[in-house]
## 1
Amino acid sequence: MATFAYMARDASGKKVTGYEEAVSSEEVIARLQAKSLIVINISASSGAEAREGGFRPEATAIRFRFRHTAIKEDDLVVFCRQLATLLGAAVTILRSLDIISQQVASRRLHHVIRDLMKHMEAGLSFHEALAKHPKIFSELWVNLVETGEASGNLANVLSRLAGYLERDAAFRRRIISALLYPIMLMCAAFGALLFMTIKIVPTFADLFKGFNIDLPLLTQMLLTVSNFIRRYIIAIFVFSVVGFALLKAYIKTHEGRLMYERLKFNLPLFGEFYRALTVERFSAGMSTMIESGVPILYSLEITEHSLNSLVMARLIRQIKEEVRVGRPLSQSLEKSKFFEPMVAQMVAVGEEVGDLPQMFKRINTFYQEYTETFLVRFTAMFEPLMLIMMGVVIGLMVVGMFLPIFHIATIGGG
């Protein structure tokens, strides 16, 4: 084992130095990152240096092994949090980007950060460099960074943005976890029914050929369905894939997207859930931007493009125009009929007391809890309903297959 000297910073930006014994520098980095430290420098050290407690300032730069190529949501969260920490510790932005680029897990993000540095060295500001990568850094990123640069408070703005990204990522994970079980249950049910239709029913069909009897209607229907699926299963699969691809392509068009969103918001059970998800996203973005010093009109304009919803974009555009001519935001929200009265009332209170960001945060918390509660209840209700439906379908198939046998047994007994 070797001894490695390291320099790092903690979450508050305080410099931390020391020595670690490990097989490799990667092991030391993993240990330090597990302690929420941002590694700045690391180098192999002799035992004498360790006893003297010295640290070599000329320590070589870290070279991190990339763990994946794509840029994941968590990569951006970590990047934003690390950048906020380093800037808060008075490290220059170019030096901060250089440090982070050597530690990112994503190969593509490493190249993007190096490209940001290249643009900034050529004279662009940080937000202008971010704008060169619109597929990675959204308008929310660009405009919040621009606000932070203009106010000279970039570290705090990035810290708020990191908090928003962390909360959003955690919320998405909870939503996906809640939906995972119902999806797996549906796939298992579909697989079981398909197996019985393709394998079990034909076995009984071969058995029935030796019987000189009229098959019951239920049995005839099962055999007809089984024969149809077995004969045209490839055509059914191809048709399904092509149909899905065409539907997806249509939804990407303006008219198709608008129709899809309207259908989604008007579904009997899930319409309110999708509406709540949209309001949650709206309130999260508004609270982060207003708290960071972005004016309300500008915040609405950014939200209009960042929600990725044509229905919401139209509503926010109308709200923005009404606010522009002097109407309070709360009245505009209430007039839209999309937001519940509670939202408008809480925004009105925030406008009166001058604490609009805090009110949007409370709205965001309420709708996060609402959507999570909805999913918990839906999952609890879905499981027994799915089991009952599977039981009924499989029961009908079993009855349909055994009815001829019961009929033969009855004739033979008579």
Note: The CA atoms of residues 104 and 110 lie 6 Å apart.
## 2
Amino acid sequence: MSIPVDYEILRLIWWLFLGVLLIGFAIMDGFDLGVAALLPYVARNDIERRVAINTIGPVWDGNQVWLITGGGAIFAAWPLIYAASFSGFYIAMFLVLVTLILRPVGFEFRNKVADPRWRGFWDYTLTAGGIVPSLVFGVAVGNLFLGVPFRIDDNLRIVYEGSGLFELLNPFGLLCGLVSAAMLTTHGAIYLTVKASGPVKERAVAYARLGALVTVALFCLAGVWVAFVLDGYAITVAAATDGPSNPLLKTVVRAPGQWIANYKAYPWMMLAPVLGIAGPLAALAFVKAGKAGLSFVMSAVGIFGIIATAGVSLFPFLMPSSLMPNASLTVWDASSSRLTLFVMLICTLIFLPIVLAYTSFVFRVLRGAVTARQIETKSGNFY
């Protein structure tokens, strides 16, 4: 079969698609996580909690498709990354899956019994389902900058030699976790300013203002840490970018300042951190001006900037190895075959527009704020 796209270009395209899926998940499912995390703080009674829950209840399951698609894309396009990450981050991934499973259970079960203790229990599970994934995803990204303790033997088998979850909870990893949690919680608060009403919306405005400032402050602190404290990774002897996926064909060294080397070589990449800072600040300005829709758009721009900053800082590395730098997985040596990437590209170009069109349709149909009166009169299908 003749494939009209170069292997190198296909790898780069799938690196971009991976970023699109991660950013799509953070923007679309991120506000679900943020609303759930804020549930005890923006809602003071059962009616208010139901208002907050029903802003995300009809859409959370569709939004979570981005996470499932991202996992599938990693498995198919980057099998070595899938193997290494699910070995190194297994306990963290399991913790995320448990809390994500509790989230739909909480949605469906909380109103089955009118007892406040019953509903309170499920409300706390919803909150945990918002906070834990938001924090863990950021911790995982932070540990990529530190390097993951794995080796690759001569048979290309990945051997993880880390000690588990607590090893991931190092100071820089926790800082990145806080960046993620602040970013998504702010996104959720801004979403509530769009979809909620009454006291829930008023409290969400206050949390959105605070969260935007905290997000920018933590993001800048993480940037300073990356630039001046952490050692980065650099390829000194490169393998062919269109060659076989064998990570052991290159030579990698660790050196100070390497995580900002791409910005020096390609100054246009500075657009990513600029958007990561400007997005939340613009969202804050629009919240103060009462323009909730524009605020949500700028919050999404900020999320794009923050995640893109991590991606372009690491490029071409996907998962550096702290134990065996030469085994670090990169865009050029951790992918599936050329044929696999090409077939997946065709499928993506067909189905991704359909998913985006359907998502747009759903949000258009469900437009409008959720009010306490709607909940009390049950004028609709509410949780």
Note: The two ends are 52 Å apart (CA to CA).
